[in-house]
Design goal:
Number of strands: 11
Strand order of the largest sheet: 1-11-8-7-5-6
Radius of gyration: 19 Å
Number of domains: 2
CATH class of the largest domain: Alpha Beta
Number of helices: 10
CATH superfamily of the largest domain: NAD(P)-binding Rossmann-like Domain
Order of helices and strands: EHEHEHEHHHEHEHEEEEHEH
Largest sheet: 6 strands, parallel
Length: 296
């Protein structure tokens, strides 16, 4: 068996196109231009590239982009003051504070200060609570993208056994909640799970989000299962060159699974696309107008 490759890059491009059409419809019908503010503290190279890519994607979709780049020694009080100004700015519908923050800043306090209705990362405790009890809210972008890829690949997910490797508040836990909402039977596994291999082998859907390169071997995967690899790990090969790998041993898994996301080109591109979709949704809620349909 050779697994079908789930092309997240292509799906993300389609989603960005739909977002652009929705933005155009909002502007034409309501004079509403969704605005996304991204805050970067310090000069972490990876974060800087990510923030630049977000800004370019926001503008390409026809939305307003507000970048705030602050020095690494910015005080927590000054950062919170900026968040407060963005909360009150009617042109800003989504706020994203890029993580990680410098060690002297309490990231939890900053996230808690963001208006939940502008929290397009979906990290605020109120949005986490909304997701947990099934109320409408903004959902973390990476797990939202994973669910989209799964439903595109498999159709309705109801009745499937889903195993999520990882219990982070950013991916693992919200991923489990989204799968529950899709009527899957969900198991969350972690570093204290007694027999991790056996749990994985039961899965119709396996979502790996633990941040350990090639941790999941091929013989942990049930033949025909669908594998979503959230991991993005940089490793150095024998030739001294760096490359990106996932949390799943791709070469082994592709011979067993029914479908699998590659790294790169799988889940990663979906994160920014879902961020744009969340910003449109946030703008519509704040303006009290419906999100335009895909035919708009």
């Amino acid at each position: 068996m050779t697994a079908r490759i789930i092309d997240g890059k292509a799906f993300a491009a389609t989603l960005r196109g739909r977002v652009g059409a929705r933005v155009a419809a909002l502007s034409a019908r309501h004079g509403l231009v969704p605005g996304l503010a991204v805050v970067l503290v310090g000069e972490d190279p990876a974060s800087s590239v990510y923030v630049r890519n977000k800004g370019e994607a926001t503008k390409a979709a026809g939305m307003a982009s507000f970048d705030h780049r602050l020095p690494a020694d910015t005080s927590q009080a000054d950062l919170l003051a900026l968040v407060d100004r963005l909360n009150r700015d009617p042109a800003v519908h989504g706020i994203l504070v890029q993580l990680p923050l410098p060690a002297h800043v309490d990231a939890g306090a900053v996230i808690d200060a963001i208006d939940p209705d502008k929290d397009v990362d979906g990290f605020h405790v109120i949005n986490a609570g909304r997701l947990a009890i099934g109320r409408p809210g903004l959902v973390p972008c990476t797990p939202l993208g994973c669910r989209m890829l799964l439903e595109d690949a498999l159709g309705p997910l109801r009745g499937l056994n889903a195993v999520v490797l990882g219990r982070s508040t950013i991916v693992g836990r919200p991923m489990a909640q989204l799968l529950l909402q899709a009527d899957c039977t969900v198991t969350i596994c972690h570093s204290r799970t007694a027999d991790l291999a056996a749990e994985c082998r039961r899965a119709d859907v396996l979502v790996a989000a633990i941040g350990r390169p090639a941790f999941v071997p091929g013989d942990w995967i049930r033949p025909g299962a669908t594998v979503i690899d959230v991991g993005i790990n940089r490793v150095v090969g024998p030739d001294g060159k760096g490359r990106l790998v996932g949390d799943v041993d791709f070469d082994a898994a592709v011979a067993v699974a029914g479908a699998i996301t590659p790294v790169p080109g799988g889940v990663g591109p979906m994160t920014i696309a879902c961020l744009l979709a969340n910003t449109v949704e946030a703008a519509c809620r704040q303006a009290g107008v419906p999100v335009p349909g895909d035919a708009a």
